[in-house]
Structure formats: C-alpha cells, structure tokens
C-alpha cells in the first residue's frame, strides 16, 4: 500500500557557491582593487502537480531529490550561476507532511499544474569585492556558500475522483467499474481482490465524462484502521458522489448497508452527507433476485432510493451511471484549494535571524561548550577559514554580538573547546 498512496522522500536544496578572492590586474591600471565575484544561489526544491500521474509508485525507487549547487564566483567581478532547481512532480491530491512530525501539514496540492516552493536554495557567498570599504580597500576574505535546507517529507495521496464506488469486499465494485469504463481491474471470486484503488473514465455523451474510483472493500472497524481501513477510507473524502454497491447474495443486505454507512460516519461525518446511490448488485443470481423486493421496501421505508443491477451482465448499470451523473451535476462543487504552510518563508525567516540571538550550553563530561543560534551557526558555516582576515572578522563578530562576554561570565577557560554548529 505504501508504494501506491504513501511515500517518504528526502529533499535538499542546493548549496550556494563560494565567493572569490581576486584583484584586477590589467596593463596600465595599477592598484586595480578587488574583483572577486559572489557565488551563485543554490537551486530551489519545488513541488508540482502533474495530472498525468495517479499514484506515488514513481517514488518507489526514487527517494532522494537534490537541487544543484550554485557556481563559485570568479575574477573580474563575475558572479556564479544559480544552481539548477529540482521539481518533484506529484499526482493531484497529494498531501505533503513533515516526516519528523506527521501532524505538521506542509502542502496540499490539488490543482493541476500548480507549483509550490518547498525549500529555498542557500545564498551564495560574497566575494572580496563586496567587502571593500574606506578602511580596507584591498580585502582578502570571502564567504563560503550557505548550505541548502534539507528534510524528509511524507507524501500521502488522496484520490481526486468525481464518483467513488464503495461497499463490502466481493460486492462487485470492480466488476461494475470494468462494465462502465475501459478500466480493467483485477476481478476474482474472493474478498479483497482489489487492494489498490482503480480509476476509470466513463463517457456518457460526446462531451459528458466523469472519473470513477473503485475503492477497496470496507470491513467492520475500518474507521479505527482495521483491515487498512484508513488507507481505503481517505480516498472517499474528495469524491463528490458515492455509489454504494450491495452484495445481493448476502444473507442480510440491510445490515451490510448499515455497517458501511456506520464506518463512513465514524471516520468522517461529512461522508454521509455526500450524494449517494444504493445499487443492489448480482441480480443475475436467483437468491439475490429473491431478496430484491424485501431490500427495496426496507430501504424505501427509510427514504433511501435504490436501484437493481447486475454488473456481470451489465443489466441496469447504465441507469446507475446516468443517475450518478445526474447527481454529479447538482452536487456542490468543492473548488480545489492548494494549502501551503509556507515552509520556504519559515526557512528564510530562520536564515535572517540575528547573530545576537544565541544560547550557550556546556557538556560537563567533555567540557565542550555549545553555542546554539541560527544566526551564529549560519555565520560560522559561511566563514572561509583559509583567509586570515576571515578569522579576524569572525573574532570581531563574536565580540560585538556578546558571545565572548557570555562565555567569560559562564566561566570558560583558555584552551576549552567550543562548538558552533558543525564547527569546533
């Protein structure tokens, strides 16, 4: 099941390119000054809806998605090129969640062709031309490129179909889909032949079509996850009309109807308010034909309209489909809206946090001091330790931000080790 409507993937935005230390050296132009260019921005990670996809099977082997790194800056004030963006294409109805916290909804993609920025690429490091000032006209320092954000995300698919076929296992749902469309789902005389939802397009007239989903059978307790109930029930949420297929050979078809309706209501009460059709199936079997009248009277006494059919012989299936299409025309249209938690803005906000916001902690066992803070960790990671002026700049920032004063007040001694992010 996880190969069809669930997947877990790793996404990483591209790192920024490094800045360059260079000086202008041309004939007849003495003291040309710094000319090191900035590094290019890393590539972004986008999520895009591809209407040609109808499952998450494409992520069965493709798990890692990485954007390109920005090019390094060059001499003659040449900035590096941007890194290549990475576009992760998903089927309509895909929900994106943070893998660390499954309750955090990041994106809900339903509109065909809609693209959403998930992770922005790291910014490029500045070259020495950006550090030129009145006091330092020949700076010999440059920054490293910023590392791109990375995370694991869970993808969950909720099928987007006009009509959903529901019922208990072996009620004839797949047979009905194969009779009214060109879909060819697996059909056999045992329960749970259908383990994955099947989609079919039904054409009524020249311009009248609708998408019908054959959903796997429901068992008692499906609302609580029994028998992969959650895996099946969530695909009914975006169906505008439901066709409830009743197994006519069942000893008590009324109880079968009540059981499925109860599972829908317990899972999501809104499912019971959707327009629905009750189709009494297997009329070609004598025992089902004998139960038809009693079932029809029992349902009509409740105010429920029912129709009889035989999916195997296609008797009555056209009437069921036409009635479903009629309900579809009057059913309220739920305009698909793509929900976004704006992860990119949160990442950018974290990157713009000031260096002065930090936290100091010490490990008493190893006497290792840790400095936490998005601003100071980003600054440390982008510092290019190959240049002496970069080290001087780093020491000035620690002094001006108050980190040195905080460490001294906490009792740090000369020779103690300090870790800022991945740098020690």
TrEMBL record:
Q: Which cofactors, if any, are listed as required?
A: Mg(2+)
- Lineage, top ranks: Eukaryota, Viridiplantae, Streptophyta, Embryophyta, Tracheophyta
Describe the location of the OBG-type G domain by residue ranges: 161-329
Domain of life of the organism encoding this protein: Eukaryota
Q: Which residues form the OCT domain?
A: 350-424
Q: What is this protein called?
A: Obg family GTPase CgtA
Its transmembrane ranges are none
Q: HAMAP family under this entry?
A: GTPase_Obg (MF_01454)
């Amino acid at each position: 099941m996880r190969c069809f409507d669930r997947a877990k993937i790793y996404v990483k935005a591209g790192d920024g390119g490094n800045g360059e230390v260079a000086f202008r050296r041309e004939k007849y132009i003495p003291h040309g000054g710094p000319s090191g260019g900035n590094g290019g921005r890393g590539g972004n990670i986008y999520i895009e809806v591809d209407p040609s996809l109808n499952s998450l099977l494409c992520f069965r082997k493709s798990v890692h998605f990485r954007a390109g790194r920005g090019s390094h800056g060059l001499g003659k004030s040449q900035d590096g090129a941007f890194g290549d963006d990475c576009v992760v294409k998903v089927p309509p109805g895909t929900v994106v969640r943070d893998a660390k916290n499954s309750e955090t909804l990041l994106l809900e993609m339903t509109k065909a062709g809609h693209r959403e920025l998930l992770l922005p690429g790291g910014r490029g490091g500045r070259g020495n031309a950006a550090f030129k000032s009145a006091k330092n006209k020949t700076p010999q320092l440059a920054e490293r490129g910023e590392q791109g954000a990375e995370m694991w995300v869970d993808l969950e698919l909720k099928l987007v179909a006009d009509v959903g076929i529901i019922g208990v296992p072996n009620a004839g749902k797949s047979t009905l889909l194969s009779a009214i469309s060109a879909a060819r789902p697996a059909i056999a005389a045992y329960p749970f032949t259908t383990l994955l939802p099947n989609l079919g397009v039904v054409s009524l007239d020249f311009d009248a079509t609708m998408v019908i989903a054959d959903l796997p059978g429901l068992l008692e307790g499906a609302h609580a996850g029994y028998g992969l109930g959650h895996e099946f029930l969530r695909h009914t949420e975006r169906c505008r009309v439901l066709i409830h297929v009743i197994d006519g050979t069942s000893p008590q078809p009324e109880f079968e109807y009540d059981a499925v309706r109860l599972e829908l209501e317990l899972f999501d009460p809104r499912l019971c308010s959707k327009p629905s059709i009750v189709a009494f199936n297997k009329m070609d079997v004598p025992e089902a034909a004998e139960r038809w009248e009693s079932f029809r009277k029992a349902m009509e006494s409740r105010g429920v309209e029912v129709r009889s059919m035989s999916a195997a012989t296609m008797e009555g299936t056209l009437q069921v489909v036409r009635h479903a299409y009629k309900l579809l025309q009057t059913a309220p249209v739920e305009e698909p809206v793509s929900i976004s938690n704006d992860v990119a803005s949160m990442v950018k906000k974290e990157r713009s946090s000031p260096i002065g916001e930090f936290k100091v902690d010490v490990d008493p066992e190893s006497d290792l001091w840790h400095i936490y803070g998005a601003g100071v960790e980003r600054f440390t990671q982008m510092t290019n330790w190959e240049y002496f002026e970069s080290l001087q700049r780093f020491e000035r920032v620690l002094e001006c931000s108050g980190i040195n004063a905080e460490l001294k007040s906490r009792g740090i001694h000369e020779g103690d080790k300090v870790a800022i992010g991945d740098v020690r």
